[in-house]
Amino acid sequence: MKASVGTKGLIFNEPLLWEKGVDGRRGFSMPTRDVDEAPLDESIRGDGPQFPDLSEVDVVRHYTHLSQWNFGVDSGMYPLGSCTMKYNPKTNERQAALSGFTGAHPLLPDQLSQGALQLLYDLERYLAAVTGLPAVTVQPAAGSQGELTGMLVFYAYHKSKGQPRTKVLIPDTAHGTNPASAALCGFKSVAVKSNEKGILDPANISGLMDEDTAGIMVTNPNTLGLFEENIIEIAEIVHNKGGLVYADGANMNAIMGMVNMADSGVDVLHLNLHKTFSTPHGGGGPGAGPVCVTAALEKFLPVPRVVKKENEAYSLSWNHPDSVGRLHAFYGNFGILVRAYSYIRSMGAGNLKKASQLAVLNANYIKENLKDTYDLPYDRACMHECVFSDKNQNQYNITTLDIAKRLMEYGFHPPTIYFPLVVHGAIMIEPTETECKNDLDAFIAAMKAIDRETRENPELLTEAPRIPKVRRLDETLAARKPKLAG
Ligand SMILES: Cc1ncc(COP(=O)(O)O)c(C=O)c1O
Q: Considering the domain boundaries, does residue 44 fall inside one?
């Protein structure tokens, strides 16, 4: 067995024997029976699952090894642009583990679920306060499912007006889930080009918006980390043609307490609790993508809704005939919602605003310190993230991928790469507010060292990463033909 030491002092053993089962090993002792044995009809037992026999220590070591091969926000800086990989405070975990929450069965009647219902109700109120949009559902399980919910609301709204529409405007900087969500609802997406400042041009929207267009999906701040400063004018153009404005609020971490999305003309918006509100990012879930809408669109939100009338208990209400229906079992990923509630309550309104201010400050600090080293296609004040390209390093045949892989050897998770598509060889850095100045400086120093290596020792980049368990993966093959064991 070969062992090497990683940058953070972790031991990466390779190869790890994957199949560890040994017949007869046990990891669990059943308590001694204290009731009479009841005869069991063998035919209902079946053959049982084919699990390997493992001891407790086998299982613990296996999962501990896997966790050491992983890199998380608890291991170091994780500046993955557009993903807001901020630190997840451990108090959130404590609240989510309270036995009253973990033991609550989702089919309990309303009168036995008052605490859980109140938490959902209050969380919806807090998210309404953060966004300025009064009606909220916390049911969708991801940002992308929030987008789908929003597109269903667009569809239901236009249908209710007696004029279903077929198209949705989507900027060229949008996340890929935006056109996918629109397409799932049967809308054709119409790409809108951003201007030379990296934002949307009202004249452009004016030329595209017509009475067959259901509305626009705008990410604000956008994926270049730039504020869509023409949003009010754009919303007016869309509304004047009878359309709706959808805001992809995945980047809300930059503007909490500073921008009222309703005042900027937004009708529907989704948030990613696993970004802005510090809940864990799972491997594709479970997350939460609450959707916030104007009062006029509330009737279309998914059921059940949590309601509370004066002097009455909290209850789940199903009687919403215009609702787009149900998006998730029960009321969404409840454990995640408890964590977001815990985050909001422990921060308070003032600190949420401060978090956004610091997130923006940190991104601008990185931008200013690296812009003489890395090409910065849009040299303007940024919001939560800044987007460079590999243009300068390309002269030495070094690409964004090489830079990202080498960064891992300096102990950092790579930034988002090759997105947004409008920047060739994009390097999209989102430090978040939870990194201190020392860590930002260490990251900047690593990026500058990598740039020097580009000229002085390019093999260090092209052969990176040498330290992690796996080196360069064929990501397409890994997605198409995943090898899940060994
Ligand atoms: C701008 C933007 N919109 C939408 C999404 C989709 O969110 P989710 O990953 O929660 O489905 C993302 C995810 O990274 C995003 O960055």
A: no
